[in-house]
Amino acid sequence: MNDKSKELLIQAGIGLVVLLVVYKLATKLFSTGSGGLFGAGAESNENTLALADKEVKKLENIGVQASKSDSEWQSIANTIFENGKIKNPLTFGADNDFKGIVYQMSRVKNEIDIYKLIKFFGTHNRFLFGAPVTAEMDLFNFVRNCLDDSYIATINSNWSRKGIKIRL
User: Fold this and answer.
1) Is the pTM for the entire model greater than 0.85?
2) Would you state the pLDDT for residue 69?
3) Sequence ranges of the domains in the chain
4) Which of 45, 62, 84, 87 is most exposed by smallest CB count within 10 Å?
C-alpha cells in the first residue's frame, strides 16, 4: 500500500467516526422518547390520536363542521410533513420551510379543523443521513420539534384570534 492509499484510508476512517458522532448527537437531541429533549413518546402519540378521533366525532355529533374536506386536511398534513423534513443533512433542519409550516397550521378555522389535522397527520419521524433521529411524533410534537418559540407563538396567536382554545 502506498502513502496515498494510506492517507485516503485514514481520511475515510476519520470521516466515518465524525459521521457516527454527529448521528449519535442528533439522535439524542431530536429523540422524542423518554430520553430525548423533545416530545413525550409513542404512548402520548396514541393518546393524542385517539383523543383527536374522539373529539372529531363529538363535535360532528353536535353539528360542528370542518372548514375543509378530509382530502384537503390530508393534503395540508402531508405538506406540513414535507416542509418539516431535513432536506440537507449538513444544515440539521435549517433549510426547513418554517413559514410554510406556520401557514399550513394557520389554515385552521375552528377546533374540529385542528383535531382533523392531528388525525390526518398521524405520526412521523424525522431523518438525518437516511436514518431516523426521532421517534414517531404526532402533529404537535412534530411542529414543536421543527419550529422555534417565535413561530409557535405566531400559530398560537392566530388560533387565539379565531377563538380556538387549543395551543401548541
Assistant:
1) no
2) 96
3) 3-161
4) 62
Cβ contacts of 131 within 8 Å, gap of 6 or more: 23, 27
- The C-alpha atoms of residue 8 and residue 19 are separated, in whole angstroms, by 16
pLDDT at 133: 74
Amino acid identity of residue 123, one-letter, is T
At 108, list the grid cell.
Answer: 385552521
E strands along the chain, which residues? Answer: 127-128, 131-132
Mean pLDDT by 10 residues, the chain (168 residues): 78 71 54 41 70 90 94 95 73 68 95 94 80 83 90 96 92
C-alpha cell at 44: 402520548
H or E stretch at 123: none
Q: Is the dihedral of CA 118, 142, 74, 83 positive or negative?
A: positive
The set of cell numbers assigned to 74 is 390530508
In contact, 78 and 84? CB cutoff 8 Å: no
Assigned C-alpha cell, 129: 443521513
